[in-house]
Design goal:
Shape: globular
Low-confidence stretches: none
Radius of gyration: 18 Å
CATH architecture: Alpha-Beta Complex
CATH superfamily: Spore Coat Polysaccharide Biosynthesis Protein SpsA, Chain A
Strand content: 25-35%
Mean pLDDT: 93
Oligomer: single chain
Structural class: alpha/beta
Number of strands: 13
Distance between the termini: 28 Å
Helix content: 25-40%
Length: 300
């Protein structure tokens, strides 16, 4: 069974100042998301699921119409804060959806096979898709999942701070914890720091971090749903509460329900957290085309 690519693309893009999910970055105006789809097709994925907001459906379909539908099945799932979930009769009012694990959950009815979760605005690299596809096809089970970890120093932005999930692993390379670090940046051209309780803390720049590239067996959906029901019940009065993927992963690992293999990647991350990141990423993708890593027009 071919794995599915689940793309989290419902974000507001507030720091970027626009709909970065469809913004043209590549030599022929490709969005970053298209490079992930191109790499996924090469790695043997059979379906792509876009998790978006209903308000941006038209922009997505206009951007991607007739580009790759003949090479991979395309499905849309919608994430709103009140998207119906079994076990929840009422959602408290809030301005935005409930976070990345909630985004995964809204696709439950359209994903029945092992799947990969990625962000729409991050570039992950061809090798990452090959390694995670191989895992999902040959190794994934309800209690054996995976993620791709990236070297922290390769994931920083020159234009502002970022958030990164720092991975802790056992001697066999299995994840033991993901610690979310906020305001991560390189300081004075040397050390990498984050902010903890308002104070800077240095990080090992060679640490592996999560860039939200997860490989899951579809059985995880029921765990996410059950945890989300409790999460909503416990956060009725907290309009900023977010239900993140690492929250689910850490629970599964701590209870011994799942072992999660960390597949490491030396690829340099490219993403558009800030508008100022765009030129850097554009230059990188033009260089990729010049080197022959990707065609100058992905879908020609």
């Amino acid at each position: 069974m071919k794995p599915t690519l689940l793309i989290l693309a419902a974000g507001m893009g507030s720091r970027y100042g626009g709909l970065k999910q469809v913004d043209g970055i590549g030599p022929s105006g490709e969005a970053i998301i298209e490079y992930s789809i191109y790499d996924a097709i090469r790695a043997g994925f059979g379906k792509v699921v876009f998790v978006i907001r209903e308000s941006i459906e038209e922009a997505f379909k206009e951007k991607f119409a007739n580009k790759f539908q003949d090479q991979i099945e395309v499905v849309y799932a919608f994430q709103e804060f009140e998207t119906p979930i079994k076990g929840i009769d009422h959602f408290p009012p809030r301005e935005k959806p409930w976070g990345t694990a909630h985004a995964v959950l809204v696709a439950q009815n359209v994903v029945n096979e092992p799947f990969v979760v990625i962000n729409a605005d991050d570039y992950y690299g061809e090798d990452a898709f090959k390694s995670i596809a191989d895992f999902l096809i040959h190794e994934a089970t309800p209690d054996h999942n995976a993620m791709v970890g990236y070297v922290l120093k390769n994931t920083l932005s020159d234009n502002g701070t970022v958030s990164r999930g720092v991975c802790e692993m056992d001697a066999e390379g299995y994840l033991t914890d993901v610690v979310e670090r906020m305001k991560v940046q390189r300081v004075d051209g040397s050390k990498v720091t984050c902010e903890v309780d308002g104070s800077p803390m240095e990080l090992d720049e060679h640490s592996l971090v999560s860039m939200n590239l997860w490989g899951f067996h579809p059985s995880i959906f029921e765990t996410i749903r059950s945890m989300f029901v409790d999460f909503v019940a416990n956060n009725q009065e907290n309009p900023r509460a977010e239900f993140y993927i690492p929250l689910v992963v850490n629970h599964l690992i701590s209870t011994g329900a799942v072992k999660l293999k960390v597949l490491s990647s030396d690829e340099k991350w490219y993403g558009v957290t800030y508008q100022e990141d765009k030129e850097t990423v554009q230059n990188a993708f033009h260089q990729f085309a010049f080197e022959g890593k990707y065609p100058s027009n992905l879908w020609a």
